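User: Hi! I have a protein structure encoded as tokens and I'd like to know what sequence might fold into it. I'm fairly new to this, so please keep things simple.
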């Protein structure tokens, strides 16, 4: 079972076991149980062109990064995992590996603003056309696909910030019939709650800055793919363009991954409670959370996810002013961008994380508030939000 460096070495083991052990055998020389941080940029060779071990130069590969990449590939059930300097660097590497000038991509009409910006302001300049489509509408997706030209269907589920859910298996079938690939941004769900490759996706992409890192102390990204040949092309891009995860960053994400399952269980439980509180509150108009039975994404989420995640968004009867005021009032929920850490965060997407989509088809409601529900005592979270919403009803 135990073959270091192979994502399939732990096939059959439970998720938590894989997270703690895959790619993380005790150090062969010292017996160190925890994978060491290897800061060395270069590795001694025994003769010209004869490396002593598996490593030559740390942009190409580094032992700490290899441990993380092996672990992530195993967690996602893929053949190759690659760790990058940020979630955007991971997306960029996948796009430049798969798309050529003249190609077309279908992207979500609700997604992280930075992803839209990457398509609209970076790759569009290099001749990659894109069409934003509501991905929870398979008919609209089918109509937007251009067989032979659509190289990539980019999916995010659940979406940031409206928690939209789309059916990965249905999207995989549609894009494969058109001759393209399906990439799923799995940042919100994490491989603990959802495994896109098992549902037919070709690539699972992460901002490891979020739940995988889990402690708001690292910026990173990753791509895991099913097809080894695509994995080798991506590895070439990673080395050729160089946006790698550094050894300390890789180590932090690896440490975070070990506790992902237990953290996610608490994130989900706390978010469920917060969503119920908001759904019953007179100051709130709409709650976006796929765990609510009447949420539009609930049936698909219940089918393809283990649980519904730690992100909750909502709109307020008092409009934009009330949304900004709630963000100002909370004390346990810290007003800050980002998500997925142990601490609860609150933000106003329209003026913060999603400024880059203002005026685009992805513009978010001005009265929207987004919560990253942390793993604090849930009673303190309930109390904090109840007080913040008190006079807004
Ligand atoms: N994907 C999603 C869903 C995100 O929320 C983010 C960042 O917020 C990214 C990708 C980009 O990740 P990073 O900030 O690590 O570059």
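Assistant: Happy to help. Inverse folding works backwards from shape to sequence: for each of the 393 positions I chose a residue that suits the local structure. Here it is:
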């Amino acid at each position: 079972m135990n073959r270091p460096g192979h994502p399939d070495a732990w096939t059959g083991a439970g998720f938590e076991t894989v997270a703690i052990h895959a790619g993380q055998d005790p150090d062969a020389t010292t017996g160190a149980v925890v994978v060491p941080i290897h800061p060395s940029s270069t590795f001694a060779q025994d003769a010209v062109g004869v490396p002593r071990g598996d490593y030559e130069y740390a942009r190409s590969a580094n032992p700490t990064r290899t441990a993380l990449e092996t672990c992530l590939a195993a967690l996602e059930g893929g053949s190759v995992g690659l760790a990058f300097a940020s979630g955007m660097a991971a997306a960029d590497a996948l796009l430049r590996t798969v798309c050529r000038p003249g190609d077309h991509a279908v992207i979500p009409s609700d997604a992280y603003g930075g992803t839209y910006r990457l398509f609209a302001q970076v790759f569009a300049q290099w001749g990659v056309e894109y069409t934003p489509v509501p991905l929870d509408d398979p008919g609209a997706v089918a109509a937007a696909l251009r067989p032979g030209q659509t190289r990539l269907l980019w999916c995010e589920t659940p979406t940031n910030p409206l928690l939209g859910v789309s059916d990965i298996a249905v999207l995989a079938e549609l894009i494969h019939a058109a001759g393209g690939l399906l990439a799923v941004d799995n940042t919100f769900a994490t491989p603990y709650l959802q495994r896109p490759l098992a549902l037919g996706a070709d690539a699972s992409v992460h901002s490891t800055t979020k739940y995988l890192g889990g402690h708001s102390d690292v910026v990173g990204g990753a791509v895991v793919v099913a097809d080894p040949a695509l994995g080798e092309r991506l590895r070439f891009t990673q080395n050729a363009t160089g946006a790698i995860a550094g050894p300390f960053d890789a180590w932090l994400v690896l440490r975070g991954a070990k506790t992902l399952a237990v953290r996610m269980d608490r994130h989900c439980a706390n978010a469920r409670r917060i969503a119920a509180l908001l759904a019953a509150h007179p100051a709130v108009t709409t709650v976006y959370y796929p765990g609510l039975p009447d949420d539009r994404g609930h049936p698909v989420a219940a089918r393809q996810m283990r649980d519904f995640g730690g992100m909750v968004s909502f709109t307020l009867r008092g409009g934009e002013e009330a949304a900004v005021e709630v963000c100002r009032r909370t004390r346990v929920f810290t007003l800050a961008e980002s998500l997925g850490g142990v601490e609860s965060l609150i933000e106003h997407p329209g003026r913060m994380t999603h400024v880059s989509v203002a005026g685009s088809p992805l513009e978010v409601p001005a009265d929207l508030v987004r919560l990253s529900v942390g793993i604090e005592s849930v009673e303190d979270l309930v109390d904090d939000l109840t007080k913040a919403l008190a006079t807004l009803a």
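A useful reference point when you look it over: The two ends are 58 Å apart (CA to CA). Feel free to ask if any position seems puzzling.
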